[in-house]
């Protein structure tokens, strides 16, 4: 039974009004503070909005996150139903000096979120409207829409647009930080599709941000720091070739690491040399049914517009001698299922586990660094089984659409990165010791791959970031970038209300589970 609906709040209110603040035990006074939110704020919200307090099933559902490490402290959930509800909630939070956070798919996992205590969650799950413009060039989506809802609604009209690969993440959670997806080779990032955004600013004012706005540059890559997007108008495209895609997957044993990554470099090409309709990705993972003593490597090739992955791409990988391989054809809508990113796939589930990522962009594979990382991954996950569901992910999206856009035209700065690489350290949470052990392991794997690349800047995709990397790694090292972001921040959010998701101010970077410098092992 739900503990609270606004309608029931009146009764509780009179109880709270009669409670002497000094005599009340702590838990009762905090309960009453939340009750006040329900009644005071409730009066300003639309009729379909709800306020949920701890103890209700809906509160639990609404606050459950994909990763349990450093989850934000939420004491009340406001389930908004209109764009104006968002503005009212922000104004209320400010007037009462309470921190607040937009909640969408709940897959954000950066440690900086942990700085929120007693916060108001602004749950966007009801803002899922879709309307396709008459000319078929754009569509307007509610700020809480998920990838799958975008794809399904457009598909019904023969249209598509860039979303994240995962059905369960929102459009805007990824999009405000850039947003990678299967169609980026053709059209660019999610943020590159934006035509205009309705946003609630830090002071609760509602504005429309478009190419003529000062914030336009900033919202395309650093948008989480400037407001809550209540709706977005984005470019959409005709589905071509009936949306035909095909895939091949290969599983390799531990002895094939060098051969595989040499072949990817050689036959699939990176960056602009990689065909626009071709993508590949791979991951290291433990699969005891194939090999109980070592992890194995899964490798996927995805190709658009063909009924089967072309032989010239598949054959070199057959020759390496996979232990298993499969393939198939379908449509764009099958990609999440093939790649384990569908609503019912494991990565979409919220299981109370820690999911910590340590991203680094690479230009191409260094097979000996891949070997070192593989062996380190083997040693650690064999020795510490609590971590044996971890993965190391290597995503090779096609990049033309991303790289064709001027890098200085958006706050998303890492357009030249060809490969999106990240260890994903997964474990059941127990204590701080295990958290430190996990983050040390993830950082070690990242350092091995980074040092193997010979690159001299660590670029870490903000939406995968662990939280310890810092603003240059997220937003770019050219000094003008952070200067520009900080000066916009000083104007639009001087009180730092949106400082919980990869903030620009280094002092706000809160990373309790990051090992101290001394302990980080750097490979040589
Ligand atoms: C299984 C999985 C697959 C993924 N696949 C991809 C992928 O293919 N491409 C990719 O780019 N990333 C991908 N990611 C990373 C993804 O971009 C981030 O996890 C992102 O934070 C998820 O957004 P969310 O809405 O689900 O999470 P939330 O935790 O709800 O949102 C994250 C943060 O975004 C902000 N936010 C969300 N909505 C709004 C809004 N409307 N207005 C303003 N701020 C908002 C808030 O600060 C919030 O804390 C993936 C992540 C997972 C877990
Ligand atoms: C595999 O990924 C990398 C990144 O693009 C790329 O270098 C290689 O060409 C890709 N192969 C695939 C999957 O297309
Ligand atoms: C893994 O463990 C083996 C055996 O203990 C050791 O020889 C090897 O150096 C380790 N490799 C890495 C990369 O840690
Ligand atoms: C992880 O370790 C446990 C305990 O040793 C084992 O039962 C399980 O099969 C392992 N899982 C994987 C994916 O390796
Ligand atoms: C809110 O902030 C914006 C941007 O700084 C400003 O233009 C606007 O006047 C402010 N609104 C109020 C009511 O203070």
Automatic annotation (TrEMBL):
Cross-referenced InterPro entries: BBE, FAD-bd_PCMH, FAD-bd_PCMH-like_sf, FAD-bd_PCMH_sub1, FAD-bd_PCMH_sub2, FAD-linked_Oxidoreductase, Oxid_FAD_bind_N
GO MF: FAD binding; oxidoreductase activity
Cofactor(s) the record lists: FAD
SUPFAM superfamilies named in the record: FAD-binding/transporter-associated domain-like
UniProt keywords, alphabetically: FAD, Flavoprotein, Oxidoreductase
Pfam families hit by this protein: BBE (PF08031), FAD_binding_4 (PF01565)
Lineage: superkingdom: Eukaryota
Annotated ranges, domain FAD-binding PCMH-type: 69-239
Family: Belongs to the oxygen-dependent FAD-linked oxidoreductase family.
Name of the protein: FAD-binding PCMH-type domain-containing protein
